[in-house]
Amino acid sequence: MPAALAEAAWREADAALAEALCYCDEAMTAKAAPARTDALAMLEQALSRAGRKRGMSRTGALGAIEPFDKAEHDLVGGATAARVRVVARGVMRGGDVLAKPRAAPARTKRR
Amino acid sequence: MTAWTLCIDFGTAFSKAAAAPRQAWARFDPGAVRPLALGAVQEAGNPLLLESAVFIDETHVLFGRAALARARALEGKKRSALRSFKTLLGAADLDRALDANALASLDPHRVFQMRDLVVLYLAYLLAAVERAAAADQALARVSEIKRRYAAPAWSGVSAASLHAGLAGLLGQAEAFRRTAGAALTEPDGVAIDLVTRTLPGALERPIEQEAELIFEAAAAAAYSSIGLEQKGTHFIVVDMGAGTTDITALSRRDDELRELSDARLTLKKAGDYVDGLIANVFLNAGKHAKSVEQRTGLWRAAMAQMADLKEALFASGRASVRHEGKVVSIGLKDLERDRDYKDFVKALQEVYGHALVVLAADAARAKARELHAIAVGGGAPSPFIRELVRTQPRGVRVKALPRPATPKWAHAPEFQGNLAPVFPQLAIAIGGALAPETMLAARGKPRPLAPE
Q1: Selection from B168, B159, B254 nearest residue B214 by Cα
Q2: Where on the phi/psi map is residue A94: left (φ > 0), alpha (ψ -120 to 50), or beta?
Q3: Which one of A5, A41, A96 has the shortest CB-CB distance to B35?
Q4: Is B77 buried (19+), middle (13-18) or exposed (0-12) by CB count in 10 A?
Q5: pTM reported for the whole predicted model
Q6: Is B329–A6 a contact, with Cβ atoms under 8 angstroms apart?
Q7: Which of A7, A49, A93 sits opposite B312 (nearest CB)?
Q8: Across-strand partners of B373?
Q9: Average pLDDT for residues B423-441, to the nearest whole number?
Q10: Does A42 touch chain B (CB under 8 A)?
Q11: CA B245, B297, B318 angle in degrees (round to 5)?
Q12: What number is the ipTM of this complex?
């Protein structure tokens, strides 16, 4: 495909990534919690934009409790589990899964 | 050495072009689709997009990004660039609209009519198309390239008269392009002296070429259904641009695609209106902005990055803007609570519902079991539009199938992940290049219309 297509697809993603790097520094160096929260909000927005400009979309819902499926989840914080809680959404491009949703074992409430 | 189709999408904000082999509809190969780098005639910016803008400076006429940059620099001096060609071309009396003198803010020399400015921009666009096609390795080997252009189906304007008007302007533009030569794509623009000497001759002696007109809704139907096993017979297209939201219903019978005129509706509210509503939500959320100056500043900060903010709001449910060192965040729910927003969505649901009833009845009569619902334009990713295209018709055994804004084939490995991110911007040009002749609204050289 023409180089122009690649250049167009990357140009806006590059700009968003550059912005994200700056907000990342702001978040890392913030001395107060409100300033860190603000910088993280801007960082998340810039990173999400970079992802969208590269045709990526998110999959899964944060906090969702689901039966664990090795093919569908990356388990964090445990070797296995019957049910898991989604702690990070996955990333897709078109029909390809670039990163599976990350999930932690869900604790069952004791009666 | 096959014949190809090159489609130009003459957009409100940007012009785009794409090419595809003439037989693409019957034997589709995603890798053969060629978006053209129209923006390569400019020094910077997205190479696939060419800003639709003309600016009359002291001694030169500027085009594209250079025109916008100069207009911005002179904003305080009541000067502006001409951008709304598309609205002008939709005028019921096109000749009258084109014969009007350009406003002083557009032309301080007071020598140009609107027709002159439109023809000048089209000449620049044709020069950009010519250069981009020559630079494309696949197109450079092609023996025959047919030109096609996409336009909306304006209410009250027939396809024949629209084609006659647009193809006539393109003929005049081609004549001027050949006269002006390389000067047209110079970064400094074309000397006004050259324009005033040569443009009248180009207007009198147009170089008319074979051209084909495809309605934007038909182009959307083409890119949505190409490559599918069942290409579909019935389509409803909701196109939310900046100024208008258009609903169009298309039905294919005997291999001809026709528009159901009873279903066509246009809302005079669209993306720009939603932008204003979102900026208002930011104003309500920005508690630090108390004075008029601060509130104006916050409004401007939000509007300056509205495309990104809107995208973030619709994709992730929240958006943030930084103003005077404070981060102001809003959620989608804040917008959904807004009364004006609710009224807009309700009006949209009503007009879409009407078009859906008309199309579903036609589909039922034709014994079709399904219809395709397609969202295009800048508003396509918004949640209410995505919800709209999922609406099912009632009382008939016809199912509405919502089609994705970016079709699956745009993710084909040949594109290495680079087409899908830019597909929504190029969709109409690509669909127009892929569509078969049966989807065309008009074709041939422009001829004077017989009196009706």
Answers
A1: B159
A2: left
A3: A5
A4: exposed
A5: 0.85
A6: no
A7: A49
A8: B236, B402
A9: 90
A10: yes
A11: 55
A12: 0.82
pLDDT at B14 exceeding the cut of 80: yes
d(CA B183, CA B186): 5
Contact B35 A2 (CB under 8 A): yes
Q: In whole angstroms, how far apart are CA B151 and each of B214, B215, B392, B441?
A: 7, 5, 28, 10
Identity of the residue in B320, B408, B419 whose CB atom sits nearest the CB atom of A42: B320
**B139 touching chain A per CB within 8 A:** no
Q: Quick one: tokens of B291?
A: 């004075």
pLDDT tens-digit map of B237-253: 998 888 889 899 999 88
| Positions of E strands within A1-111 | 56-59, 65-67, 74-75, 83-88, 90-93, 96-99, 102-105
Residue B9, classed as helix, strand or coil, is strand
Which of A 12-31 lie inside 8 A of B, CB atoms?
12-13
- Write b or e for each residue in B306-324: b if 16 or more Cβ atoms lie within 10 A of its Cβ, otherwise e: bebbbbbbbbbebbbbebe
Rg of the Cα atoms in chain A:
18
If you average pLDDT over residues B202-231, what whole number do you get? 87
Q: Residue B216 burial by CB count (10 A; 0-12/13-18/19+): exposed, middle or buried?
A: buried
